[in-house]
C-alpha cells in the first residue's frame, strides 16, 4: 500500500478514502487474484501537524475492521502489519510512525483487541477443519467396517 497520510483538516474524507481503498484491494485479492492479502506498513506519524492519537487509532481501527470483516467470512484479508513496533530504548529507530506499546496505551488496546478477535477466528476455523477431518475419518472407517462385514471377516484382522 502506498503511504497516504491523513491531514487533520481532512480526516473524514481520508478515512473514507482508506475504507474504499481497502474494500477495493480486498475484493481484487478475493475475486481477481484469489490470493490472501496482508495490509502492511500503515500508520499515522506523530510528526504530522495536528497529530493526535485518536487519528492514529481511527486508522488502525479502520484497517483492522476491514481485515476482521474479511477474515471472519473466509475472505482474502489475512492480517495487518502496522509500521512500526518498537520497544523502549530504540529511540534511534523512531521515524514518527513507531508504536511503543507502553507509551501508546490506546493504540496498544486497539492492537490487542484485533489480535484477540483474529485468534478467535483461527480457533473457529480450526474447530471446523477438525470436524471435517473427523467426518472424513469416520466415513472411511465405516466403509472399511462395511467391507469387512460383507466378506464376513472378523473386525480384529
TrEMBL record:
- Gene Ontology molecular function, alphabetical: mannan endo-1,4-beta-mannosidase activity
Name the chain's protein.
Mannan endo-1,4-beta-mannosidase
Q: What is the species listed in this Swiss-Prot or TrEMBL entry?
A: Lithospermum erythrorhizon (Purple gromwell)
Q: Which InterPro entries match?
A: GH, MAN-like
